């Protein structure tokens, strides 16, 4: 059976300020309603004879993965939590161990969570052909037929034909300079290395044994000692930490003698930068892509994204990327967007938060957004999902006022438990043990006004938590 | 005696989004802590033998003018409210009528509220020389010695010398093309028309009698029928409406045979656009002027203004103006900022509000800022100044929750009056007659959560108001 393995480990800063460590690119709705992760889940769900997807992600993103899987009604083949980033080869090894345990003949379709594929029929066809090669014990990379001389990707040079439109891989080549990329394009035997693969799980583990035995051992130990926590499989931290960090390309694909490539034209993009998003987006006749409330005069070749309750006006500008969020706006020349990394580095160096968190922070129970802040107060808009509850908690330095503006909240405050309806309020004194729960079927929205001398997120004692965070 | 007359009638859209109809350029702190209006007040206050300034402004800005005068501890020579805009000549006539009533020998120093003057000693010197000429019954225009070939200003050509560094005005000339401006600059006998004047009030009225008798009559009637309201002098609307609308240049200066010019170099700017603000601002070695939280990479020749609790990041951009406010961000090429007008026109045409009001709205009692909004709720941060009170009011469609986060508020709710301290809250039911007052010496800050089916500002019945608005 075919088991999709979705690698969702990226913490992508290249689409900052929209993508941040706590809510990276794969979880954002960049093109349409679904996130890139959800599009990936939906896409693999449409394949024939396919099992529920296995997701490999970081601890920080586990609730987001769970929620987004639910959001597209997908079954869940397992959510494997990496205790730390170790690149793609160990992540795939975890998935392989997980799958061979129940299906010794499992075939893995490995997909990064954050890629765009426009022609799904072509993709499905390529998967079917790769699956035939995988049965013949090939490890198949999907190569993208280049339609221009891209210098930002690695390339795969194909060798002899293997049938099914597949080829032996002659060699992998690093990101070329422009002249080389143009030659690759002209020669026609090179394809972009998409980071998507298909092979039998056991075969992958066998290759690790030959080419990366330390990685095989470390991931085997990490998975064997894994603990289940709600929907999540938390592998052993110490064992996983012992694994070498390496990509599947270096660790396996470049070393095995069974590497194959299936070239495909499927409207693929890794959306690796704001300019590549502009490239794949529909644009107006002046070459502009606008999202949200944008008013422009004489603007050309630009990507402009406004955020909620805010407008952006542009005059006489060309080839810009303007991306607005509630706490940060980026204005960059479109051909310089790779330097977003330099901004993120400056934020890190300054000990700031804007590369880590959005103003609106997602939690397993819903979200909060810090809508105002003063010297001794903070105002948050809190949304609690149906059926969800915050932890039973208390604060040492702040009191809280809650005003429900939508839905009905169940409030615990010390020894009282009571319902709070729309347009009702309550007061949580400093030090009180309290909890907020939504027992209804619609989201509860409330405004929280915090008052106190210290208002940091770390002023919290969790006494009980349904999400295992106490 | 010398009476400064400050013309504060502008509703300047050229510095949108920072300048809006309800809070135009003259009231903004563009360079340093004081607003341009306050800088003007402070500057004239430093002149020798000067009386308190008379301000002419629109009805909408009266509380702002009063507050900003107080803010710099200035005495108040009268705040004349124009019922509608009639250009500068009638506005100055109102001030002349106001002043000759108590001081028949009053000399007026007429100054737009929104100009910048860097060399105050040169300005004071020019005023002293102009005052001598005014005693000889000249109407003196201050001409700015051009330091480059500006095409955006009118020019004044000087004639024979009159002593005191003054000259007869040979003629006024309209905004020239670049070649003409360059010739004016080379010839040395042309000066920019600054819009600043000095003359005896009675002489000005005499000139109106000869050259604009309808204006004289209308403004005389309007002032004679004026009503005092708190600190304000509200001239008669019907009479004032009958006045022709004209500038002092056309109505008087170009017609009188007693027009003089005193050329001066005093670091003058009318800050008529974002690019002229950039020109006069101190800049870093890359030619950038940053205000607020700005992080940049390879940025040159740009003006970037971030707003509170928001950062702006720039990469690889050049000669841009980026101005951020809580609800709108402008990104414009620096040499295209005059087209801000086109954006404002689009906002008008769309029936929007962003050219009229800021998210934070100033009221005579303080301010409110709409920090969040949902389908059936709105959250405001309200600041009540010491000694101030909102009107006694009620709403037909909304209830309100108030949480005090700083200071102590006196709350009236139907027949109860009580104090609300920091970290205390109260509920104002729909339909209740209520009032908020600050009897303390520090500002009261509170968070208001409105809940209801309609949340517009017009759902208000004012039963009593200390500011005469009920």
TrEMBL record, chains A, B:
In this chain the Mannose-6-phosphate isomerase type II C-terminal domain maps to 351-465
Q: Which GO terms describe its molecular function?
A: GTP binding; isomerase activity; mannose-1-phosphate guanylyltransferase (GTP) activity
- Kind of enzyme, top EC level? transferase
Q: Which GO terms describe its biological process?
A: GDP-mannose biosynthetic process; polysaccharide biosynthetic process
Name the NCBIfam families for this protein: GMP_PMI (TIGR01479)
Q: Where is the signal peptide?
A: none
Every copy of the MannoseP isomerase/GMP-like beta-helix domain together lies at 292-347
Q: In which pathway does it act?
A: Nucleotide-sugar biosynthesis; GDP-alpha-D-mannose biosynthesis; GDP-alpha-D-mannose from alpha-D-mannose 1-phosphate (GTP route): step 1/1
Q: Does the keyword Isomerase apply?
A: yes
| Keywords from the UniProt entry | Exopolysaccharide synthesis, GTP-binding, Isomerase, Nucleotide-binding, Nucleotidyltransferase, Transferase
Q: Give every Nucleotidyl transferase domain span.
A: 4-285
| Functional description taken from the UniProt entry | Involved in xanthan production.
Q: What is this protein called?
A: Xanthan biosynthesis protein XanB
Reaction(s) the record says it catalyses: alpha-D-mannose 1-phosphate + GTP + H(+) = GDP-alpha-D-mannose + diphosphate
- EC number(s) recorded for this UniProt protein: 2.7.7.13
- Pfam assignment, any one: ManC_GMP_beta-helix
The record's comment on protein family reads: Belongs to the mannose-6-phosphate isomerase type 2 family.
Q: Which SUPFAM superfamilies does the UniProt entry name for this protein?
A: Nucleotide-diphospho-sugar transferases (SSF53448), RmlC-like cupins (SSF51182)
Q: Which domain of life is it from?
A: Bacteria
């Amino acid at each position: 059976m075919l088991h999709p393995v979705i690698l969702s480990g990226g913490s992508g800063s290249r689409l900052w300020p929209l993508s941040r460590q706590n809510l990276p690119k794969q979880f954002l709705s960049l093109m349409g309603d679904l996130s890139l992760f959800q599009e990936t889940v939906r896409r693999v769900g449409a394949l024939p004879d396919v099992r529920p997807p296995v997701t490999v992600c970081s601890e920080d993103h586990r609730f987001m993965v769970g929620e987004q899987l639910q959001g597209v009604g997908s079954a869940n083949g397992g959510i494997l939590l990496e205790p730390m980033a170790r690149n793609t080869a160990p992540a795939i090894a975890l998935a392989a161990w997980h799958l061979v345990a129940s299906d010794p003949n499992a075939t893995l379709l490995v997909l990064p969570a954050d890629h765009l594929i426009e022609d799904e029929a072509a993709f499905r066809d390529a998967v079917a052909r790769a699956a035939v090669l995988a049965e013949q014990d090939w490890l198949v990379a999907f190569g993208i037929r280049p339609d221009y001389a891209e210098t930002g990707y690695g390339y795969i040079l194909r060798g002899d034909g293997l049938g099914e439109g597949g080829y032996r891989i002659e060699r992998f080549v690093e990101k070329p300079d422009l002249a080389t990329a143009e030659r690759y394009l002209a020669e026609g035997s090179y394809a972009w290395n998409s980071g998507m693969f298909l092979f039998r799980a056991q075969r992958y583990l066998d290759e690790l044994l030959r080419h990366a035995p330390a990685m095989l051992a470390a991931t085997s130990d990490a998975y064997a000692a894994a603990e289940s926590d709600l929907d999540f499989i938390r592998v052993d931290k110490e064992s996983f930490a012992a694994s070498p960090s390496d990509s599947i390309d270096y660790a396996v694909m470049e070393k095995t003698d069974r590497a194959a490539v299936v070239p495909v034209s499927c409207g693929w993009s890794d959306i690796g930068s704001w300019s590549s998003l502009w490239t794949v987006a529909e644009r107006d006749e002046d070459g502009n892509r606008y999202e949200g409330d944008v008013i422009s005069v004489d603007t050309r070749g630009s990507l402009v994204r406004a955020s909620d309750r805010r407008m952006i006006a542009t005059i006489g500008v060309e080839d810009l990327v303007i991306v607005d969020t509630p706490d940060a706006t980026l204005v960059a020349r479109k051909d310089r967007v790779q330097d977003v990394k330099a901004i993120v580095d400056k934020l890190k160096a300054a000990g700031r938060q804007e590369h880590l968190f959005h103003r609106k922070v997602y939690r397993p129970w819903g979200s909060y957004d810090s809508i105002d802040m003063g010297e001794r107060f903070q105002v948050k808009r809190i949304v609690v999902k149906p059926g969800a509850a915050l932890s039973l908690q208390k604060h040492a330095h702040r009191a809280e006022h809650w005003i429900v503006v939508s839905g009905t909240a169940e409030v615990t405050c010390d020894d009282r438990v009571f319902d709070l309806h729309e347009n009702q309020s309550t007061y949580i004194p400093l030090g009180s043990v309290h909890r907020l729960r939504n027992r209804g079927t619609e989201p509860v929205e409330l405004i929280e006004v915090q008052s106190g001398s210290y208002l940091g997120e770390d002023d919290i004692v969790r006494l009980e938590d349904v999400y295992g965070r106490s």
